[in-house]
Amino acid sequence: MREMTLEQFRSSVETGGILSVTLKAEGGAFYVNAETCKGDEAVLVTTRDKAPRSFADLRKAMLLLREMGILDARIDAKAWNPEQGESERPSRPDRAAAMKRTNAAVAHDKWFREQVEIGLKSVRKGRTRLANEFFNELEVSLADLPG
Prior knowledge:
With 147 residues, the protein is of the alpha/beta class. The chain has helices at residues 6-14, 58-67, 82-88, 93-124, 131-144, and strands spanning 2-4, 18-26, 29-36, 41-44, 54-55, 74-76.
């Protein structure tokens, strides 16, 4: 079986080198297999490690094929086990940490806005003075001190 990166697969489609495409399920993922004009089979692989490119979401695979101009594909779901896909999904600690930072920032922003609103309400009710008024009074008081 021949391995093709996305770029190679796209070029083969554009030049008419792909006769048919099958989305074949294994476990919880789907893989793109193709029959080429030379009569051999090809599998879509990742660019970096040349591992078969898997799609946990069949819709994403179909969108990719449609983007390349493939509007007719066969689906082989005999070996599909959707429950297996959930357990094989890699954890994303980087995304979890980013979400925690985002949530903390949102919470801090909410708190800050509440504090500003409390301060503005106090000024409107005459309970507090503006900072420049306070510092002006402080300067006058300090100027009156001996020494």
